[in-house]
Amino acid sequence: MLRDIERVLIDRERIATRVREIAAAMSADFARDTAHLPEAERDGRIVLMPVLTGSIVFVADLIRHLPHKLSLGLVAVSSYPGKSVESKGVSIRGELPADLEGKHVVIIDDILDSGQTLDVLSRLVRERRPASVRLCVLLRKPGKARIDVRPDYVGFDIPDEFVVGYGLDYDGFYRNHPEIVTLRPEAR
Fold first, then answer.
1. How far is Cα of residue 80 from the mean position of the Cα atoms in its chain?
2. Would you call the peptide bond into 34 cis, given omega within 30 degrees of 0 as the criterion?
3. HSE-up (13 A, CA, CB side) for residue 71
4. Mean of the pLDDT values across residues 71-84?
5. Global pTM value
6. Are 73 and 96 in contact (CB under 8 A)?
7. 40 pLDDT above the threshold of 80
8. What is the DSSP string of 127-168?
9. What number of other Cβ atoms are within 10 A of residue 8's Cβ?
């Protein structure tokens, strides 16, 4: 695997620091969202909705820093099938979490590229009448989105390059690499 890496864009220390910062910002927002409720009603109103499979490593690290009673509502979406390095459109596989009414939902994705995934999911979630919907992405490619999607939480802005690692893959591989990296051309 290491021989396939061209260069490291974001090392594991920077990722860990930024994940803690995002968790702190989310935690402050959750506290504001529920401050008007009696204490007994504050728990269980937060739903994190990770977009599988790319965001799973990010979410696993993120939830360890969130001191709230929350639930996960996993959603499977395909937009980069096989060896594709560009989005081929959004295909939702399976059902969205059912009970979102009155909840504070955070949709979490690995990367904001075309904007299609977050646009489709946020519209579908809003139809279920949550108290709020926020968007969180680990990576964003500024200026690349074809749809105006504005995440509330962004880990890192990156150049318009194909990246893998920390949950992101190429043909199902490299998700386990602990850093965000580019691949050598011969590895793709």
1. 15
2. no
3. 14
4. 73
5. 0.90
6. yes
7. no
8. TT--SEEEEEEEEE-TTT-SS----SEEEEE--S--EEBTTB
9. 14
CA–CA gap between residue 27 and residue 44 (Å, rounded): 14
What digits encode the pLDDT tens for the residues 2-34?
Answer: 789 999 999 999 999 999 999 999 999 999 988
Tokens for 127, please give them. Answer: 């139809």
Pairing of strands 163-164, 180-183: antiparallel
Catalytic annotation present for 33: no
Q: Six-digit token pair at 153?
A: 């939480």
Partnered with residue 50 across adjacent β-strands are: 108
Instruction: State both tokens at 71.
Output: 């639930």
Question: C-alpha dihedral over 134, 138, 142, 148, to 10 degrees?
Answer: -20
Over range 147-173, report the average pLDDT: 94
Phi and psi at residue 54, to the nearest 5°: -60, -30
Report how far residue 108's alpha carbon sits from residue 56's, in angstroms, rounded to the nearest whole number: 9
How does pLDDT run across 113-136, given as a tens digit for each residue?
888 889 999 999 999 999 999 999
pLDDT given for residue 46 in this prediction = 92
Type of residue at 180: I
Catalytic residue among 61, 109, 110, 113: 113
Half-sphere exposure (Cβ direction) of 79: Cα atoms closer than 13 Å: 26
Q: How confident is the model at residue 58, as a pLDDT?
A: 98
